[in-house]
Amino acid sequence: MAAKDDGINGVLHGKYELGRQLGHGTFAKVYHARNLQTGRNVAMKVVAKEKVIKAGMMEHLKREISVMKMVNHPNIVELHEVMASKSKVYFVMELVRGGELFSKIEKGKLREDVARSYFQQLISAVDFCHSRGVYHRDLKPENLLLDDEGNLKVTDFGLSAFSDHLRHDGLLHTTCGTPAYVAPEVIGKKGYDGAKADIWSCGVILYVLLAGFLPFQDENVVAMYRKIYRGDFRCPPWFSSDARRLITKLLDPNPDCRITISKIIESSWFKKQTPKSFMFE
Ligand code: ADP
Ligand code: MG
């Protein structure tokens, strides 16, 4: 049985039959599963409590659950139920079958209209989260899944924050996320606005979709951080002028000058319509 290495038998809580592994992260493995009562296929994220406790991340795990219950949106992976055993926590989630957006980029850059459609869906999800005071804080192509119809679904709220976690100065103070996608002010440790930091990560994602490579790269992490701080990147020649303009506003190293979601939505690059048929060419 696929999930034996987790100490799980083939059938979980007499309700879910576990199948093949779909993916993994730092604390979790995600499996295909089937609800034996309804026949419905789901994704089962299995989190090892011990690892989470050792890393001092139990609060994050609890937050991940409460956030996922709150954010019901067509571009966010739906959480059906949460179960727990002595050693594990199980997230029963909507199954997203098309894999990670990451694997699309591994094959090379995307066409501008295809990238636009994904970016529009990403912004729709992020806008929804922010309107509810939720900041994802780990937006990257590995946490963006695609369904059979080319719809994008944001997942992994394991590092997310609520706006009530802001300190008296109104700013978040935890450094988290993945280096290449992290905003300069998050590295800076002076406190940051979670919404603006998410917008920066969306800018890195848009760049990667259009370029096929990262805007800020260096084998040395310190050198990479320096580039992020300075907003030191170049757009490849194939970016359209509208795309360039938007990316430059998204990747503004000064969070106070960075574009807001409402302005992103108004921008001429964002507003163009993408025929759905393009997604499958
Ligand atoms: P972690 O918090 O450990 O990073 P994630 O929630 O990101 O775990 O899940 C790890 C991987 O499992 C994802 O990158 C993705 O490949 C896969 N995965 C997660 N959720 C789903 C889902 N609902 N449907 C299909 N695959 C999923
Ligand atoms: Mg993840």
TrEMBL record:
It catalyses: L-threonyl-[protein] + ATP = O-phospho-L-threonyl-[protein] + ADP + H(+); L-seryl-[protein] + ATP = O-phospho-L-seryl-[protein] + ADP + H(+). Keywords: ATP-binding, Kinase, Manganese, Nucleotide-binding, Serine/threonine-protein kinase, Transferase. One of its GO terms (molecular function) is ATP binding. Its EC number is 2.7.11.1. Residues 16-270 form the Protein kinase domain. ATP binds at residue 49. Coiled coil: none annotated. It is an enzyme of class 2 (transferase). One of its GO terms (biological process) is signal transduction. Its cofactor is Mn(2+). Belongs to the protein kinase superfamily. CAMK Ser/Thr protein kinase family. SNF1 subfamily. This is non-specific serine/threonine protein kinase. It comes from Tagetes erecta. The chain holds residues 1 to 281 of 433 of the full protein.
